[in-house]
Amino acid sequence: MRGFAIAFFCLAIPLMAIGEPRWCSVSSRDTSNTIVYVPIAAAAQVQGEARARIIYSPNSRVERVEPVSGVPMLLEPLAGQLSNWTVRSNASGHELCQTLVIATFMLRKPSRSWTRKQKVKFTTGPNAIHVLISRPRPEIETDTSSPALKGS
Description:
- By secondary structure, the chain is of the alpha+beta class.
- It has one domain.
- Strands 1, 2, 3, 4, 5, 6, 7 and 8 form an eight-stranded mixed sheet that branches.
- The longest helix has 17 residues.
- The chain is elongated, with a radius of gyration of 22 Å.
């Protein structure tokens, strides 16, 4: 039994040294890094915030994405899109980094003065990237010939 405890302890020490990736701030984003408001979520008028941690080597592609919180209809597509990102940071060395991505998905009222396209705004802060994704609210067409709408 004592031999088992010693063997376990010897194996556990290297694993503890690996630990969590360090927190790093992103210095700039690659122009290929995009976030898209998934059409099905917009059609369902799902809005809200989704948070995920990206784990990456400094100045490299994202190695993995860990969803943190948010509406599943927004969080799952966000995680998939983040996995294709290339991240630039001021971190040195080869140790893995992590950064929190906070994405807010918002539908806005359609307006003649606003573009009908999606707008994305990126803001980087200490250990986090804030992304605001907005697109016009889908216009719902009503069929007035429907008996349910006429009250029949």
